[in-house]
């Protein structure tokens, strides 16, 4: 069997398993976690495109997530725009802000860029807190409309339950994965990685980093905004908390633990840490302490110290040892 055929077979089996999950897992609580894991997967893939493949340390990524959520929610509540269109409108609005934020990235790098992006997210969070007429301030927007039903002939799909949203989020993850994989495998993606490894060297062979940085900030922000729109219509509540720094820290931790600069890493990190976060809730109830961020911090330190390539690196190393032992 050729390598290409094996890969296609693996993709087909994986897709069949993912489609079958809601028919096996009937508990709504676990379906809720799976939907949130999918949304975080899109978010982490988008951050990884910027930080992992381009080396641009954006610590304000949650701002794009919040912009997408607020845009989609406000359009649906105040103009009656279909939430399906709102998902992409949220992505486009976030992309517009990403384009604007990309300009400082042309001159900044490292800690200076990180601090600038934190400031950007904090400004937007304060705007969301204080623009009460539009956002209802700290109360947030509640009662965000659900996704409208889909009709195909006599078949009708409504979005009342977590299982229904699971399929939408799964489609969103596959769409994001397809776009980012194609992007990374293209000449554009190779150029991004060349800039990450040696920007001066890339410039010496005629690459203009400015246009690439602006483009990647815009694309990364689009997918984060798209994830925000999905969250708004699933949770039906949008608040300034979405733009907070700790959300970017969650995304960063997921990407680092999964494997920065890889495709599989953000997926592994987002799914495993979403389930871990839920598991810690019961422990928090006992200890009366928010230990989630403490655990995340410890895991991040251990990852940096002992497994720089994340879970992907561990799995790859174990697989190589198995093959070597045959």
Automatic annotation (TrEMBL):
Entry GO CC: plasma membrane
Domain of life per record: Bacteria
Stretches that traverse the bilayer: 30-50, 62-81, 87-106, 165-184, 214-235, 255-277, 289-307
Location of the protein in the cell: Cell membrane
Sorted UniProt keywords: Cell membrane, Membrane, Transmembrane, Transmembrane helix
Major localization class: membrane
InterPro entries: ABC_transp_permease, LivM-like
Membrane-topology descriptor: Multi-pass membrane protein
Molecular function terms from GO: branched-chain amino acid transmembrane transporter activity
Protein name: Branched-chain amino acid ABC transporter permease
Species annotation: Desulfoferula mesophila
